[in-house]
């Protein structure tokens, strides 16, 4: 059955717009939206969980002006190597997520996430440092000063 989603090499149930750069070994789950219309680079070895949406454009100004502002805003998204995006996370235009970062399920990423950082919530906020030691991974809580 044809569901109307253009074919792509990652997942038959992922909607990929434009021509994003996706590194080797990256896994893309079902029901994802990868918007490459404003420039999207996803590094190697990432997991983009089911239901993740990554946007590189916004039609807010066009919409609220009744189309008096005809432009669609666009800004690239950059995702580093070995980044995990949890189920149903949303990444908004203009964001950079550093290498080995972890974004929790349902998080909405509106600003940059540093490398090796766990970010959760709406909006996504850094809560822990990701420490990788061989095959072991641990999350070291950040001090509350990060939220001020």
Query: If you compute it from the alpha carbons, what radius of gyration comes out, rounded to the nearest whole angstrom?
Result: 16 Å
CATH level 1 class label: Mainly Beta
* Span between termini: 51 Å
Q: Report the helical percentage.
A: under 10%
Describe the protein in words.
The protein is mainly beta and 148 residues long. It has a single domain, classed as UDP N-Acetylglucosamine Acyltransferase, domain 1 (3 Solenoid). The protein has one helix at 60-64, and strands at residues 15-18, 21-22, 27-28, 33-36, 40-42, 47-48, 53-54, 57-58, 73-74, 77-79, 84-85, 90-91, 96-97, 102-103, 108-109, 117-120, 125-133, 136-141. The strands form 4 sheets. Strands 3-6-11-14-16-17-18 form a 7-stranded mixed sheet, with no helix packed on it. The termini are far apart.
Question: Which descriptors apply to this entry?
Answer:
single chain; about 35% strand; seven-stranded mixed beta sheet; about 150 residues; 1 helix; UDP N-Acetylglucosamine Acyltransferase, domain 1; mainly beta
Task: Describe the SSE topology.
Blueprint: E1 15-18, E2 21-22, E3 27-28, E4 33-36, E5 40-42, E6 47-48, E7 53-54, E8 57-58, H1 60-64, E9 73-74, E10 77-79, E11 84-85, E12 90-91, E13 96-97, E14 102-103, E15 108-109, E16 117-120, E17 125-133, E18 136-141
Quick structural overview:
By secondary structure, the protein is mainly β. It has one helix spanning 60-64; strands spanning 15-18, 21-22, 27-28, 33-36, 40-42, 47-48, 53-54, 57-58, 73-74, 77-79, 84-85, 90-91, 96-97, 102-103, 108-109, 117-120, 125-133, 136-141. It has a single domain (15-147), classed as 3 Solenoid (UDP N-Acetylglucosamine Acyltransferase, domain 1).
């Amino acid at each position: 059955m044809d569901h109307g989603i253009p074919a792509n090499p990652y997942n038959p149930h992922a909607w990929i717009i434009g021509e994003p750069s996706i590194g080797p070994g990256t896994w893309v789950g079902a029901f994802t939206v990868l918007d490459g219309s404003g420039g999207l680079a996803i590094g190697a070895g990432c997991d983009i969980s089911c239901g993740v949406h990554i946007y590189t454009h916004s039609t807010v100004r066009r919409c609220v002006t009744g189309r008096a502002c005809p432009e669609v805003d666009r800004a690239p998204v950059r995702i580093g190597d070995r980044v995990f995006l949890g189920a149903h996370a949303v990444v908004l235009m203009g964001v950079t997520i550093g290498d080995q970062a972890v974004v929790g399920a349902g998080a909405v990423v509106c600003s940059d996430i540093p490398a090796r950082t766990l970010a959760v919530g709406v909006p996504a906020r850094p809560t822990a440092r990701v420490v990788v030691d061989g095959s072991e991974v641990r999350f070291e809580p950040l001090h509350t000063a990060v939220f001020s």
